[in-house]
Hints:
Layout: H1 2-44, H2 49-69, H3 73-100, H4 107-110, H5 126-137, H6 139-159, H7 165-194, H8 196-204, H9 209-213, H10 216-265
Amino acid sequence: MIMIILGIFLFIMMSAIGGERGIASVFSVFGNIALLVVFLYLLAWGYNIYAVTLVCGLAFLLITLFAQNGLNFKTMAAFVSILIIMVLLGIIGTFAINMFNIGGFGELYTLDEDMAFLNNRIGINANGLLVSSCFLGGIGAICDTALSVATVEYEVFSNNKNISENKLIEAGSKIGKDILGTTINTLLFAEVGDAFFVWIIFVRRHYDFVELINSKSFLQNILMLVVANIGCLTIIPLSAFLTAKMLSKKGIQKQESQKISNQKKN
Length: 266
């Protein structure tokens, strides 16, 4: 009952503060939740992890970017940038996870007495599941960063159609650097908060530094944090560059069409 009340309260607040965008955000959240449920069932039914992750990742992007912000230069530039970065993160995650074989249950869970009575042979590649987690784990923060950079460049271009491509890239990079610190800290606290149980067990069981850095549970959390931060770092110059290219092309096309129309009038 309390969850329903909180959900209604959230919907009212988002509608009152965000207006149309707030309502769109609510529906995009529900759409992502429904898609996440489908994603988990597909994995549980044994479909290929990488194919399901790629398809659902694209669907998450479409809902998050276009359903909420519409189809325009900002969202298109952000979408292309995010796709490139997500492929990069998938490659990095796959390489690191398979090289060090850190997928699956960490030793903190396998040593737990309750785990002895559970069958953990679920028939799904553990390393593949961790790659999927790395691929999707930072998608929200990466989307936010890419869209912020693209929005700034779009607003600058809207107010000055003759601005150079380099100036647009500079404007996007500047705002990206401004939000970088808060984005990384957001990811840090989200990951630490998610791993409170793990950290408390580390303290209670008196792990020393060597045991800590060799712990699979610790490495899994650090890997996901590092991969998400790499994504947030690399998305800034990439989205700044692609947005500037698209907007500059738009400006050139508009100038050419104006010249043609003027020539026809003369």
